[in-house]
Every structure is written in C-alpha cells, then in structure tokens.
Write a structure and sequence with these properties.
alpha+beta, tt1808, chain A, 6-stranded mixed beta sheet, 4 helices, 12 strands, 25% helix, 28% strand, globular
C-alpha cells in the first residue's frame, strides 16, 4: 500500500498554475476544471456589484478566487468564486492564505454542480465562520442566500438582493447580477 504525504497550504501556494482551480481538503489536492464562459460572466456581475458598493462606501474588500486556510495539520484551503470581507478583517494584512474565512462568500453554480453539492459547499462555508453565502444559479436566474440558523432564502430575478446588516445600503435587482439588460 502506498501512502502519500498530505500537501500543506504553503506547498499549494508555490504550485505552478496548471489552468485548473486547486484547493486542499485535509491535505488532499482537489482540482476543478475551469467552469466556462457563462459562469465567468455571472461571477463578474456579482463582483462588479460588490466592488462598486465597497468603493462607493469605502467599506470592505472583494476579491475572486482567494484561497482561505480553514484548517491546519492537515491543511484545508478553499477558494470561493468571490469573497467579501469587512474592514478590519485579517485578510487585509495577510500575504498568502488568510487563516480566517471571509464575511461573505459568493459561489456561482457550475454546470456540474448538483443541488447537494451546492448545499454542502454553503454549509461548509457557514461552518467555517462565513456570515452569509450567496449562491447564484445562471440557469434559473436565482440567488439562494444561506445564513447560519435560518433556512436558505431563494430570490428570483424580480427580487431585490440586499446586504442586510453585513453590507448596509447594498441593494440590487437579482436580474442585474446575471445580465446587463432585461
């Protein structure tokens, strides 16, 4: 029987970019293929909305595919499609992988994601301290909002996604996150 040594977060950080998204789950390398054009467009829609909010209000930071070290020895490093964190979050001062999860995670459903995959990933983020997870589904033009201690809330394209207490004053029609024109 052959056993392999778990990969560390520091080793992951130094790995060459092979075109796939790479994450660690308890020391095991997980690779995901690039998700495709529509996924990227929708990610940019969410990213632009969050960036514009943060810049206009001088409040928080948003980034894409940042890795976060969520567990150590063996290491778990996960990277959401988008992450937002409030002012004073340790990620502001961290090179490499911050050791605290972001305040908000945005994940965009990939064609290969099953409903159980989506729910499991949202639960994982909440378990590691994320306050909210927004799951965008390009096929249905919906955003599912996950928060600890509450049932997921599904917002359709005619609904307004607001930032609640986490992002005061943030508000956008759901359809605008998925496309520029109605």
């Amino acid at each position: 029987m052959t056993t392999t040594k778990p990969i560390t977060a520091d080793e992951l950080l130094l790995m060459p970019d092979n075109g796939n998204r790479q994450e660690l789950v308890r020391g095991e390398l997980i690779e995901m293929p690039p998700p495709g054009k529509k996924h990227g467009e929708v990610t940019m829609g969410f990213g632009a909305a969050l960036y514009n909010y943060s810049a206009a209000n001088d409040y928080g930071m948003v980034g894409d595919n940042y890795g976060y070290r969520l567990e150590s020895d063996p290491d778990t490093v996960r990277a959401p499609d988008l992450a937002w964190y409030a002012p004073g979050h340790p990620a502001e001062l961290t090179d490499g992988y911050p050791e605290r999860a972001p305040d908000l995670v945005v994940e965009i459903k990939s064609p290969s994601d099953s409903p159980s995959d989506v729910a499991e990933r949202a639960r994982m983020w909440l378990d590691f301290g994320v306050q909210e997870v927004w799951y965008g589904d390009p096929e249905t033009t919906t955003v599912t909002r996950h928060r600890t201690g509450t049932e997921p809330e599904v917002l359709g394209e005619d609904d307004i996604l607001d930032g609640g207490e986490l992002l005061p004053g943030f508000s956008i029609p759901v359809w605008q996150l998925f496309r520029r024109h109605r």
